[in-house]
Specification:
The protein is an all-alpha fold. It contains 18 helices and no strands. The longest helix has 30 residues. It is globular and about 55 Å long.
């Protein structure tokens, strides 16, 4: 339950990032503006969470790959398809307006096929096509292909080896990002503008983001292979949150691409590990409203950008960019996400995957990425 609720807070970081990036929120407390400025790290959290939860769900069970992949498709694609339809007017109208749609404007048919096929993250300049948040589902689809192949090999490793693998995954992520910062293959202008061919590779390519998922998987096996006292939860969560707070506070001193993609993976793993122990003080996250919104956070992630555009910029000029308007936006976004969860996500999941074992269904904590 606690992990489900944590999804809501990670998704909100992404929402605040786009509210700030699209200049709906331009002022506020310094601490809030710092958090909103690094909302993209919410994606990394979900990649780590995905690996952790899939291991928790499927480890120790015979895994039929075909059944697994069908279950994952049923999990992500119905709401994804709805989001494509819902955001299509924004995409078509903004093709010649937003710089990150330039490639899609020149290769419109191919861009649409890539997005529909969950392949856009493999083509650097196509990654943000259609809606700027959908690239992470392309990455997640690749993780689902990899998971059955990695599950058994990792399950045979000792805790010591798993720790080494986790450290290696983090080191690889840091190395790739550091090489980009050192070599500057896109030049200084691309880094300043947060847009460039190789920058998009480091930010969005599924192979580059795979270490975060594998870090989550290794953390899941570490969690399952030993019995831990609940007292271990507090130091794990405290250390993780302290590292996250440090990174947010000193974000201007950290190269953007390192913070975006690599830096906080171990901190997220520590937080997940601690909350998975279900200490008594974490029960506040079991509040029904938090669990419901956590369940609906995938839809919130998929829908919040087009809702934001339609609500605040529907007339072509910014409107309602005040506290009352922002509250109204969140009310609309939450209600829409819950409705999509209740009437599209869950019904289609049951219909497309009727044979899912009840034991796994009861054990599963929904892990799908909601991110930027």
């Amino acid at each position: 339950m606690a992990l489900t609720s944590l999804r809501l807070f990670a998704a909100l970081m992404v929402v605040f990032l786009h509210l700030r990036g699209l200049k709906v929120i331009t002022d506020g407390p310094a601490w809030f503006l710092k958090i909103a400025s690094v909302g993209h790290v919410g994606v990394s959290f979900f990649f780590v969470l995905s690996g952790f939860v899939l291991v928790y769900t499927y480890a120790g069970h015979d895994l039929n790959r075909r059944v697994f992949w069908r279950a994952r498709f049923a999990r992500i694609y119905p709401a994804y398809a709805f989001a494509l339809v819902f955001s299509a007017p924004f995409f078509l109208l903004a093709l010649n307006t937003f710089p990150f749609f330039a490639w899609a404007s020149q290769h419109f048919t191919l861009a649409c096929l890539l997005v529909i096929g969950l392949l856009q993250a493999w083509v650097p300049l196509a990654a943000l096509s259609w809606s700027m948040v959908l690239w992470s589902l392309s990455v997640e689809a690749f993780f689902y292909l990899v998971f059955p192949l990695a599950l058994e090999p990792l399950s045979r490793r000792s805790p010591r080896v798993l720790l080494l693998i986790a450290a290696g995954c983090w080191a690889i992520s840091l190395l790739v990002c550091s090489l980009y910062v050192w070599l500057k293959p896109d030049g200084d202008i691309a880094i300043a503008n947060d847009y460039g061919t190789w920058l998009n590779v480091v930010k969005f390519n599924p192979l580059v983001r795979l270490p975060e998922f594998l870090l989550g998987m290794t953390t899941g096996f570490l969690f399952l292979k030993k019995r831990y006292e609940k007292q271990a939860a507090l130091p794990a969560v405290a250390l993780g949150l302290a590292a996250i707070a440090f990174a947010i506070t000193f974000q201007q001193s950290i190269p953007f691409v390192i913070l975006h993609t690599a830096l906080l993976g171990p901190a997220f793993a520590a937080v997940l590990f601690g909350f998975a122990l279900e200490p008594r003080w974490s029960r506040m996250l079991n509040a029904p409203i938090l669990v419901l919104l956590g369940d609906a956070s995938y839809s919130l992630y998929l829908l919040h950008v087009p809702i934001l555009i339609y609500f605040f910029y529907g007339t072509g000029r910014r409107r309602f960019a005040n506290p009352a308007g922002i509250l109204a936006f969140f009310a609309i976004a939450f209600i829409a996400s819950v409705l999509v969860y209740r009437f599209i996500e869950e019904p289609m999941r049951r219909r497309m995957n009727p044979g899912r074992a009840s034991k796994l269904a009861l054990r599963e904590v929904r892990e799908t990425v909601p991110a930027a």
